[in-house]
Structures are given as C-alpha cells and as structure tokens.
Amino acid sequence: MSFRIQLALWFFANGIAASAQNIVTTYAGGGSGNGFTAQALSLAYYALATDTAGNIYVADDHHVYKISSGLVTLVAGDGGHGYRGDGGLATRASISTLQGGLAVDAGGNIYIAQQNAATVCRVDAITGRITALVTSSSFSFSNLPYGIAIAPNGDVYYASGDITQPQVFKLTEGTGVVSVFAGTGVSGNSGDGGPATSAHISSVRSLAVDPTGDIYLATGPSIRKVAHDSGVITTVAQQNATSITFDTSGQLYFASGTRVSKMNVQTGAVSVVAGGGSSSADGIPATTAALEAPQK
After folding, report:
1. pLDDT 10s digits, 49-78
2. What is the pTM of this model?
3. Which residues of the chain have pLDDT under 70?
4. What are the residues facing 33 on neighbouring strands?
C-alpha cells in the first residue's frame, strides 16, 4: 500500500505535498522490502512524527525508521516482541505495538508509546540509547499509552488506550512525575469552561500541541482544547476527527474518514484540503484523490 495515504495529514500540515493547487504525490512506501530509499520501503504503518529539520519518523509494529531526503535508516527496534534492551542502543532493543504513538521533541529525541509493552520510552538524539520514562508499574489495564505529544517545555502528554476509561496523562519534564491532565476516567463530553481534570471526555484518538503550548484532544465527537496555563478545557469543534496536527502558523489539520481538512481555530472556518475523491494516481489535485484512513 502506498504510504501516501497515511502521510497525507502530516504532509499538508508541513507543506510537503501541498503546492498552489494542493497536488498529491507518493512520498514513501509501496515497495516490497526494507530498502534504503523511501519508495522501496514496505511499511505496516502505525504512527509517524517529524523533527524540526523536516525529517520523518515512521513506526511499524516493532521498528522506528527515519526518512531524510528520501533515504531510510533504522533508529529503533530489532524486530523482537515486547520491550527489552533498556539503556542500550535503540537499534538493538525490542519494542512492540507502536500504534500507541510517536513524537519528536525540539532536541530530536524520539518518544515511543508502546501499548503492549505498557511503556513510554525515549531514544536520545545524541547517543541513540533508549530509556523507559514510564513503565508497566505506572499503568493499569485502563491507561496503557495511546497517542503522544510533546509540549514546547518538554512535558510529555499521552492518552489512555482504554475507551471505557478515557484520560490524558502528563509526564513532567525534569521530575518524571506522572499526573492526570484531563478526564475523570468516566466517558462523556462535558465540563467545558472548568478544569480539564474534572471534565468527562470521550476516547482520545489523537493529541496535538499548538505553537503556544495548548493541548488539543481528538475525542471522537469533538476536538477539545486544554489551555496550558490554566488547565481549563473547552470544545473548539464538533468534528469526528481521528487524527490532528498543527502547522507552524497554528492552523489545525484533522483527518476524518477519507478526508483531511484544515481549520482556523480563531474563526472556526473549515475547508477540505485532501481526500474524498476516487483516484489513487499521483500528480492530481488533492481533493480528487482517494485516501484511506489518513493520519499522522
């Protein structure tokens, strides 16, 4: 399967696949092996992220790859199951079920949320070593990590993987303390205008941080924001988004069904930028392209 369809959301938020007419092209995937070029790579894709230099990181079930200038390198995972190799080189460590999420901070450190291994870990940008930040002793069945985002100050946010007890957790940079950031553990859609920790939220499908540091949650029926300074939660859109991300100017992009849309969070204006069409060809206007479950 062409990697174009999964990367569409990230591409449009970062201007890679967009031109004046928003033309879609295949960037990576569609190959039959783990080749050195992006389009030779065969991907069972689960999550992706980008660094400040524009490099792309993509996770399958047991590996994380870096794509830079069309070339692919392995940055984490030896293909083994579970989580083993803590403190060692990430390329020699076993990592598992990476649909939990992937993120990169301003320093190039990679954060991996491993659902099956009940671990949030970090790959150091300088040493290449992997370290568990949150381990299975910190999790119950109801809050295995799903979705991950990094704030400008380095705090790590991740969501519960249990749809019946949705919450968002915060790992404070420097202290390693884990605390509840949003949600009571009771599913719902209430609490706007009050503390996020007292609000009922629906299952969180995706997390994103805007340029100011506010945290956005894609919670099924709506997109909600938690102010980073006050902790107050509000609903910004009634959109059934499965994945969300921001561009550097603060425009929100979200995936819903087979489309990618852009939203001005100040005015609420929404426009479709990709998907909804029937063609899988390259070099066509993005709104005529067929996209299958686009996500970041």
Report:
1. 889 898 989 888 788 999 888 888 899 999
2. 0.86
3. 1-21, 26-36, 38-46, 97-100, 136-143, 161, 292-296
4. 41
| Cα(224)–Cα(189) distance, integer angstroms | 10
3-class SS shares of the chain: helix, strand, coil, % to 5: 10, 40, 50
pLDDT digits (tens, 9 = 90+) for 171-183: 998 888 889 999 9
**Nearest residue to 280 via CA among 264, 262, 258, 247:** 258
Q: Are the C-beta atoms of 44 and 66 separated by less than 8 Å?
A: no
Q: How far is CA 294 from CA 4, 26, 227, in A?
A: 9, 13, 27
Residue found by looking up tokens 């970062």 in the block: 14
Tell me the C-alpha distance between 217 and 206, whole Å: 6
Closest CA to 295 of 124, 82, 62, 47: 47
Q: Are 95 and 114 in contact (CB under 8 A)?
A: yes
In 3D, which of 80, 81, 60, 244 has the Cα closest to residue 157? 244
Q: Strand 233-237 and strand 101-104: pairing? A: unpaired
Per the CB < 8 A criterion, the answer to whether 216 and 252 are in contact is yes
Tokens 């990576």 belong to residue: 28
